[in-house]
Amino acid sequence: MKHATKLMTLMGAAVLGVSTLVPVIGANAATGYTTGTADATTTLPASTSGDKNDTAGTASGTTDAHVTVDTGYLTLMQVPDFNFGVVQPGTNNKVLADNTGLVADDGNSDGILQVNDYRDGTDGAATGLGYTVTAALGTFAGVADPNGAGAGSSTNVGFKLNLNKAVLSTQVGSSTTPGESVSTALNEGGSGQVLNFAAGNGYGSTVVDYAAKSSATLDVPTQVAKGSYDAPITWTLSAAPGSNN
Questions:
Q1: Residue 11 — φ and ψ, nearest 5°?
Q2: What are 138-157's pLDDT values in tens digits?
Q3: Mean per-residue pLDDT for 4-16?
Q4: Cβ–Cβ under 8 Å, residues 71 and 203
Q5: 47 forms bridges with which residues in the sheet?
Q6: Distance between alpha carbon 147 and the CA centroid of its chain, in Å?
Q7: Average pLDDT in the 4-25 region?
Q8: How many C-beta neighbours within 10 Å does residue 124 have?
Q9: One domain for residues 226 and 111
Q10: In this model, does residue 12 exceed pLDDT 80?
């Protein structure tokens, strides 16, 4: 009877010329038994059986999940940590041990730098507006290592972090321009570009994987005292277009 009433209401609205549009979302009803009876039910609460103390049967209910997807934004999604393990003074091009960070910050232990650019071009096409990412290396300072190494005492002695070229990968559904990241050598207190997209390039989700052992290396000065050291790296995403195609 409820279905008939709803049908008549919709027909009446059409005849009267009502133009308001209401989203129609299909829904699956619950299944089971009305408690204390043998009657099937399509609403909750629903029992698994019409019999008391039954050990068989099922009852189910249906819900929904909702999300709104939006575009038009340039977002710095992830930035990586770097761990070069144990080295001796005067070691150059020491490859990564892993991407485990020492202090609590924004870094991830997977070695991933990720930028999402879902801004549309001036013609409304999904081409991107271009952007750059720079990395700035702070000063290596003594920080105790949980594994037992005490904090080092040297400062401003000349560590250098080398970020090497890496192939850009994309996530499913992305149209990011293929290419490589920009290699850069970062002295303490220095900065350099690691991503550079001109207008019309870089649309989608761009991922640089710095997990490979050779993707980043460290030059260790000869005059550094023994101990554990850590330096901050600041990753800056700029919405202004770069110069590379």
A1: -65, -40
A2: 999 999 888 878 888 888 88
A3: 37
A4: no
A5: 33
A6: 29
A7: 43
A8: 7
A9: yes
A10: no
Cα distance between residue 145 and residue 238, in whole Å: 34
pTM score, whole prediction: 0.79
What is residue 49's predicted lDDT score, i.e. its pLDDT? 96
β-pairing, 204-209 with 141-142?
unpaired
Report the length, in residues, of the chain: 245
Nearest CA-CA partner of 151 in 60, 40, 67, 230: 230
CA–CA separation, 73 and 66 (whole Å)? 21
Largest CA distance in the chain: 89
> Cα–Cα distances in Å, from 94 out to 91, 137, 168, 210?
7, 17, 23, 14
Sheet strand arrangement including 107-108: 107-108, 74-80, 112-117, 204-209, 168-170
Identify whether 245 is part of a domain: no
How far apart are alpha carbons 141 and 53 in whole angstroms?
69
Q: If you search the block for the tokens 């924004």, which residue do you land on?
A: 106
> Which one-letter amino acid corresponds to residue 48?
T
Domain coverage including residue 3: 1-66
Tokens of 1: 């009877």
Which token pair is 9? 């209401």
Q: Which of 33, 66, 99 is the last residue of a domain?
A: 66
Note whether 134 and 99 are same-domain residues: yes
- Domain contains 243: no
Number of domains in the chain: 2
